[in-house]
Design goal:
- The structure is a single chain.
- The chain is mainly alpha-helical.
- It folds into two domains: about 260 residues, no CATH class; about 100 residues.
- It is built from 15 helices and no strands.
- The longest helix is centred in the C-terminal third of the chain and has 36 residues.
- It starts with 6 loop residues before the first helix and ends with a helix.
Length: about 425
Amino acid sequence: MSYKDITDLVNRATEDFAVGQLLKKSSFTLYETMSAIEIMDPKMDSGMKCEKPKYTCETLKTCTISMEQVIKIIDRLQGLEVQWLKGYMIYQTLLTCLFANDPLNISNPYLRAYTHGLLKCCYYSYTYVTSANVYSEEDFVRDSSGYIDNYFPRNISDEEIVNDLQKLEEELMKRLKNQKKNNSNNNSTNSNEELPPFQGDPEKEIEIIDAILARIRFRRAFLNVLSNFVQSNKKNMNKIKKSLTFAATQIPIMEKTEKTIQADINDFFDENINRKMYSQMPRVTVKFTSEETYEYYSNFFTEAIYLCSLTVEAPYQALISFVDCIRIYGYNRARLRRLLVKFIAEWDKLQEECELLDNNLWNTLVISLKSYDNEEPKYYISSWVYHIKLSYLEEYLSLGIELEIFMKHELLYTYW
């Protein structure tokens, strides 16, 4: 099969076109538009030959990375973790990092332990969100092409990861103590030959140790929070609250050192790695800045600590009936409005049942106490249910206005 070069023909045919003008054939419908491929776009044209990355998962085993690069890689991974939790595919976020694709063979001990802790946290987040059934495809993407399901259960346990992070934390504390001691003695030589310095500059050495120490502590505390949720009894809840508080104290340190430490890490990330997947939607992901990442973590820990303070030992069966009242607010605004329709109908049935219960209670009260013979029945329980139902009706109408569902003439009835 031979090909003919039509470049000159296309150039001559488009000479009279204005910038941005398109030529559309009448038979080119919306279906063809959605099925079209943008040629020479690496995110859409799978046949395009992309520039080969400097490193691959195999060559990473022998590459040497500096501590500054380790810190910046960790910061990038944290941003990708937030992206994944916000609804993007794992192959478009965390797995664009080459180290995350083969964490068992990472040569740097700090990055290896942190990556294991990060991926284990992702496993718990994935498990909790999935089992709680509070997600929709646009809110959280479960599909990981088997990566999460197949990798974690058969590899490394929580205890091993926490112990590795704990050992590195102790080593970094020892480094920091030695470095400060050397600085106070005006001696830049490390007194411990087993722990060579990361940097020749003593001040820079302390900054790097503080930075990596805060990140290791943060991940260890975060993993303790998620792993203790498996059995969230009162004892574990105290551990969770303590770990949440400790993790929150590390965020200002990470945020400060993220701005002062610089290193080139683009070679360790490949955004085209997901081209081998059957689905690459969405084509473009919104990248989170470091400020947005740390703001997300801060809000998460603040809200989680507050929820821990509200936790009390209540009867389980009484609590489980109201789980849906909270669960539906985990969905986006459009889906929440649709769920409220079913929810309001259930509360309406509950109100009818409570009215019967109120009547029975009132009749029992009248029989036992003769003084209430001439009074109207009191609907205590059903009035409370009715109040809750009205709040959901108000929420339903408010969402209709917020989502601009109502026509202009319908707003009069809504506000009335």
